[in-house]
Amino acid sequence: MFLHNKKLQYTVRVSEPNPVLGSLLLEQFGGPDGELAAAMRYFTQALAEDDPGRKDLLQDIATEELSHLEVIGSIVAMLNKGAKGKLSEASMEEAELYRSLTAGGDSHTQSILYGGGPALTNSSGVPWTGAYIDSRGDPTCDLRSNIAAEARAKIIYERLINVTDDPGIKEALGFLMTREIAHQKSFEKALYAIEENFPPGKLPGIEKYASVYVNTSRGAGDVNGPWNSGKEWQRIDDVEASIPVNGGDGMASVQLTEMDQIALSEMASRTQSQISLNPTTGADLGAGPGAGRTKKTARS
Ligand code: MN
Ligand code: MN
Predict the structure, then answer these.
(1) pLDDT band at 9, cuts 50/70/90?
(2) Does residue 178 lie within any of the structural domains?
(3) How far apart are CA 121 and CA 198, in angstroms?
(4) Which among 37, 87, 92 is positioned nearest to 65, based on CA atoms?
(5) How far is the CA of 300 from the centre of ligand 2 (A)?
(6) Range of the domain at 209
(7) CA of 7 to the centre of ligand 2 (A)
(8) Cis peptide leading into 167, omega within 30 of 0?
(9) Which residue has the higher pLDDT, 99 or 289?
(10) How far is CA 247 from CA 58, 212, 243, in A?
(11) Rounded to the nearest whole angstrom, what is the distance from the C-alpha of residue 20 to the centroid of ligand 2?
């Protein structure tokens, strides 16, 4: 079950309303790398997790992400307070109110449609979707995905910190950003606490292909690094000479029943291209006024 504590995880002090900044901050409320996506990613993983340690970790972080959702949503609500009151009470002259709503970003939608929000959208008003959650139900896949998700969330917070000079918001965003660093560290530890974490899953992979680097992009700009060179790697530079890697004729084939074969060959003969024909087509004839013209000449 969930219990709610009325105190925020971090005290929110906003200097003054700023609906444009509010619309930018929605990126971390209802965006792909935002707090709702994080909470739902870890919450759903926790439900299915059988390992007691990972289940506890996922429940802790999922619940903290909901607390972050509350913090970022509270900041957005404070930033929209001014516009919300003026709009619902019509306490401003129309032109002035119009200007205050169209100051930029997605702030007009946030005011007109959502009444000051916070709405579960990203900073462009795109509604939140469960498609942001990419869990696959395997801990070595999902922990890697969680590590990447925390990395992305950290970067989005960093960008948001760089667009505001409000000291209270900067501080709160800095706290939220830092918690994503801590989460990334926990997920990295949890991944490497699984002794057999690479490759993901149970099947080991086919040994002769597992350490091959295929240099498919050729020419100036080829770079050697630890990702493609050294004793760990078997390089293939002459790619054309190496295919098909399993021998054979490199063509695709399938065993068909006699009935399937007959139907396919009938279709092939019915739709065969006659390469000796040069048929007159609608484009040659002119299908209507203007058709077939290639320059501006008067039609007679
Ligand atoms: Mn968070
Ligand atoms: Mn996090």
Answers:
(1) very high
(2) yes
(3) 36
(4) 37
(5) 72
(6) 204-218+226-245
(7) 19
(8) no
(9) 99
(10) 47, 16, 7
(11) 25
